[in-house]
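Would you kindly consider the sequence and fold I have copied below?
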Amino acid sequence: MSTSPSIRIGALVPLTRPGWIEAGRHLLAGLELAAREVNDAGGMRGRPIELLVRDTAADPQRAAAAVDELATLGVVALAGEYHSVVARTIAAKADALRRGALFRRLRGLRYDRRTCRNAAIARRAPSKHRRGLVAR
């Protein structure tokens, strides 16, 4: 890899109570594995990925503060969060800051392009309707 500056991605995960710690650990392990695999393959256009991890503790206010902090640190995207109420807060903040966001699971998040202008906010898990179609 080149000596180019890293691509910083904010990893927002519940690592302390009252958050679901086990889900947070699994989510973080997946994010770290993905970053490691990309970096081992030469990075993104020669630039390494750097995860900046923040514990949300499943608290929307704590997550919002983490998003603000990560924005000052130059993250280009946000990833993570398991709890829907926190994911909604992160999505709204990401939209306001014009940062991308990729969530592992958003059961309760209703992403609506009419209210959320940021096309870089994505949802990994399919909707219940689509999961039903896949299962058939």
Summary: Confidence is low (pLDDT under 50) at residues 104-115, 126-136.
